[in-house]
Amino acid sequence: MRYAGLIGVKLPPEEVSPGVWHPRVKTIKVRGKIYALKVSWSSGTLQQETPRATHKLTFIGTAELLSDSLLPLWVEWQGTKWEVISVDYQRPRIELRIGGVYNG
User: Domain of 97?
Assistant: First the structure.
Protein backbone atom coordinates (compact mmCIF):
# COMPACT_ATOMS: atom_id res chain seq x y z
CA MET A 1 0.00 0.00 0.00
CA ARG A 2 1.20 3.52 -0.68
CA TYR A 3 2.40 5.75 2.13
CA ALA A 4 2.64 9.53 2.44
CA GLY A 5 3.44 10.89 5.86
CA LEU A 6 5.99 12.07 8.36
CA ILE A 7 9.07 10.54 9.91
CA GLY A 8 10.96 12.00 12.84
CA VAL A 9 14.75 12.05 12.69
CA LYS A 10 17.13 12.69 15.55
CA LEU A 11 19.43 15.69 15.20
CA PRO A 12 22.53 16.42 17.31
CA PRO A 13 21.50 17.80 20.73
CA GLU A 14 21.50 21.53 21.39
CA GLU A 15 23.16 23.10 24.43
CA VAL A 16 20.53 25.38 25.99
CA SER A 17 22.75 26.44 28.91
CA PRO A 18 26.21 25.37 30.02
CA GLY A 19 26.09 21.62 30.65
CA VAL A 20 22.38 21.26 29.79
CA TRP A 21 21.61 19.57 26.47
CA HIS A 22 18.21 19.42 24.81
CA PRO A 23 17.39 16.66 22.28
CA ARG A 24 16.17 17.81 18.86
CA VAL A 25 13.88 15.99 16.44
CA LYS A 26 13.10 17.12 12.89
CA THR A 27 10.04 15.94 10.96
CA ILE A 28 10.44 15.12 7.28
CA LYS A 29 7.70 14.35 4.74
CA VAL A 30 8.24 11.14 2.77
CA ARG A 31 6.35 9.14 0.16
CA GLY A 32 6.82 5.45 -0.43
CA LYS A 33 5.29 2.06 0.20
CA ILE A 34 4.35 0.43 3.48
CA TYR A 35 4.07 -3.31 3.81
CA ALA A 36 1.75 -4.23 6.68
CA LEU A 37 3.06 -7.56 7.92
CA LYS A 38 1.31 -8.10 11.26
CA VAL A 39 0.14 -6.44 14.46
CA SER A 40 0.26 -8.25 17.78
CA TRP A 41 -0.38 -7.33 21.41
CA SER A 42 2.02 -8.14 24.21
CA SER A 43 1.34 -7.73 27.89
CA GLY A 44 4.54 -9.03 29.49
CA THR A 45 4.85 -7.55 32.97
CA LEU A 46 2.57 -4.62 32.15
CA GLN A 47 -1.06 -4.57 33.18
CA GLN A 48 -2.15 -3.02 29.90
CA GLU A 49 -1.45 -4.70 26.60
CA THR A 50 0.67 -2.74 24.14
CA PRO A 51 0.37 -3.05 20.36
CA ARG A 52 3.41 -4.21 18.41
CA ALA A 53 3.62 -3.80 14.64
CA THR A 54 6.12 -5.46 12.36
CA HIS A 55 5.66 -3.32 9.26
CA LYS A 56 8.17 -2.20 6.66
CA LEU A 57 8.28 1.26 5.05
CA THR A 58 10.43 1.87 1.97
CA PHE A 59 11.02 5.20 0.24
CA ILE A 60 13.57 7.03 -1.87
CA GLY A 61 16.00 8.74 0.48
CA THR A 62 17.12 12.33 0.07
CA ALA A 63 20.79 13.27 0.40
CA GLU A 64 20.01 14.57 3.89
CA LEU A 65 18.45 11.26 4.98
CA LEU A 66 21.18 9.16 3.39
CA SER A 67 23.84 10.92 5.44
CA ASP A 68 25.03 9.09 8.53
CA SER A 69 24.27 12.00 10.85
CA LEU A 70 20.47 11.53 10.89
CA LEU A 71 18.80 8.67 12.75
CA PRO A 72 15.09 7.95 12.07
CA LEU A 73 13.22 7.68 15.40
CA TRP A 74 9.55 7.33 14.49
CA VAL A 75 7.08 6.97 11.62
CA GLU A 76 3.59 8.46 11.74
CA TRP A 77 1.11 5.93 10.37
CA GLN A 78 -2.68 5.85 10.82
CA GLY A 79 -2.56 8.75 13.29
CA THR A 80 -0.01 7.09 15.62
CA LYS A 81 3.74 7.52 15.93
CA TRP A 82 5.50 4.14 15.72
CA GLU A 83 9.10 3.61 16.79
CA VAL A 84 11.69 2.64 14.20
CA ILE A 85 13.43 -0.58 15.23
CA SER A 86 15.79 -0.96 12.26
CA VAL A 87 17.09 1.06 9.32
CA ASP A 88 18.47 -0.48 6.15
CA TYR A 89 20.15 1.79 3.58
CA GLN A 90 19.75 0.21 0.13
CA ARG A 91 20.73 3.25 -1.90
CA PRO A 92 18.82 5.08 -3.21
CA ARG A 93 16.07 3.52 -1.05
CA ILE A 94 15.76 3.51 2.72
CA GLU A 95 13.90 0.69 4.45
CA LEU A 96 12.51 1.23 7.96
CA ARG A 97 11.02 -1.47 10.16
CA ILE A 98 8.60 -0.24 12.78
CA GLY A 99 7.75 -1.79 16.12
CA GLY A 100 5.76 -0.51 19.09
CA VAL A 101 4.16 2.83 19.78
CA TYR A 102 6.71 5.66 20.09
CA ASN A 103 6.90 7.16 23.59
CA GLY A 104 9.52 9.83 23.07
Answer: 2-101
